[in-house]
Amino acid sequence: xxxxxxxxxxxxxxxxxxxxxxxxxxxxxxxxxxxxxxxxxxxxxxxxxxxxxxxxxxxxxxxxxxxxxxxxxxxxxxxxxxxxxxxxxxxxxxxxxxxxxxxxxxxxxxxxxxxxxxxxxxxxxxxxxxxxxxxxxxxxxxxxxxxxxxxxxxxxxxxxxxxxxxxxxxxxxxxxxxxxxxxxxxxxxxxxxxxxxxxxxxxxxxxxxxxxxxxxxxxxxxxxxxxxxxxxxxxxxxxxxxxxxxxxxxxxxxxxxxxxxxxxxxxxxxxxxxxxxxxxxxxxxxxxxxxxxxxxxxxxxxxxxxxxxxxxxxxxxxxxxxxxxxxxxxxxxxxxxxxxxxxxxxxxxxxxxxxxxx
Length: 358
Ligand code: PMP
What we know:
The chain is an alpha/beta fold.
């Protein structure tokens, strides 16, 4: 066997483009168009190089404590990481160590199958129904044993949220597996199951600062779960890299959590623009499900998604499109500012007109 045969073969997750040129309307990776809280901006200017000489706190105590206070839970129930991608990756490695397949939908966050493959975790992708909804019975571990369950709620890229009672039903039917609920977009209007982490020791809820807190660039995500789950994650993390989160990130994360009113203001702005965008796109002829996220999952019957995607890109407008059979006519459009959205509607109208007149 050659050394090449021993290299890991993995098809990586493909992140959305990060165009570096100026004057781009960037609606392709679900960032927030508004700046983070004023105190975050202030603090980031304050940092002197002195602090950078020293290692940061491997326990990320200040941020975990701020998040624990924010959610009214004990600090032993919080785990912070470098974006929720890091938190989810540690969760997969921590909880899914059996020969039974873990379960998640066929249309969901495309990173789940990548981690499962990388960590050699068997998995089954369960088709969403024809309306892109989860069928809860498909995930009942007490009927058919599984190695774990991962549900994004709201789901991405569909933007559809299920109720807390709906998610609890799946948790209740899985007493013998860890259930991970990825709530990356929950702040934009969905019901959370975070409180249920007190009731179910096998439930982990994952959140991020990347969307609702306008901090995708700093990389903060966290999880809330039972002390047993959090201790397992800490043991795994400490077996890979103790100092995952740097000093600056920890301080800026705390500053964001402490400014509740700014947070609420930004959420109100984004959700207002989202509802207006949904109506506007529907009026243009798009099919758009109700969204509880900061993006819309839109399809224009008769015009290929790839065509609109490519034409928008020529105009420096970036949205997301996937060459995947069930969703290949859909575009995922992140909600930008009102001014950005106006430009998007105008350009989409022109693109559709041009396609029809070919
Ligand atoms: N979960 C879901 C459902 C997402 O859409 C994303 C964004 N790509 C993430 C997790 C990861 O976000 P981040 O690592 O920036 O916290």
